[in-house]
Specification:
351 residues; alpha/beta; D-Maltodextrin-Binding Protein, domain 2
Amino acid sequence: MIKKIFYILFVLVLLISACQPTANDVRTLTIITHDSFSVSAELVSGFEEENNVRLVFIQGGDTGSALNRLILTSVNSKTPEADVFYGLDNTFLSRALEQNLFEPYQPEGLENIPDEFKLDPEFFVVPIDFGDVCINYDRAYFSERNIELPRSLQDLTKPEYEGLLVVENPATSSPGLAFMLATIAEFGEDAWLDWWQAMKVNQVAIVSDWETAYYNNFSGSSGKGPQPMVVSYASSPAAELIYAETALSESPTASLIAPGMCWRQVEFAGILNNTPNRDLAEKFIDFLLSKEFQEDMPMQMFVFPVLPAAELPEDFITASQLPETVSSLNSALIAAHRDAWINEWANLMLK
């Protein structure tokens, strides 16, 4: 009888042990992002521990490049390369939705997000952050040479600004596309290319992505680049102040935020079609809209959270500039003409 009891207890121990999670039970959730994505390590580890998951982040280049990659892989395979895409913005939104890349999901806390950011009414993607694409300038360059700052996009065509601006290719860069759309909003469909022609004559520099423009070409970041103006974000000066090697009283860069010079960029995240990890993908979208992640973003990616309850760091607020007005175009107009506009721009500026 005693042997039988011990045998039963032994079998129960084996069964209980078999039910315990092991390293092999840890699942993997893959997120493809643009190259500027960043999040605090403690938030990542906290999410992983809470959900028994390992997060893998794939940096896909600028937003346009990452989206192109997803479109190509979705055509060639029914299984997505990743489970979630973070970083799609409102300039590429219609293109992504046309490709049926996402599965709809309405996450927890969505009701707390202002309607102005909810640009997809079916919630194939949900808004996570926003930032204003503007022209940043190197304060020292202009003050040392006593050059007056341009007050409008039209001013940039003047001889005194020849060769002083670097922009990103709108075919591959989301800030580049946002800036191109700002010029269309400012000058109209009939005259925007005339402005770009004048800028071509004025030796505007063109590169493929934001990282190259900001860190290689812009003098305000490295101090060595040839252009003292760059298409970037109105929050970029905050990064220059906060991460300066020596303490500064003000940022060495600032933004041109006059009417017609800035475009509001909203970034989204979505669950990719046919993911085998739908449950974890939903939890990750919930995580992106959590107060913890929303408050982490400003100091990690220097963007503004869409959650109104998220508190902003003082240094971020001090050095960031918010334009009083931002340029915009009807989303249906962008969807109908975006590709044609990009082709027209490329035919003019890259040949």
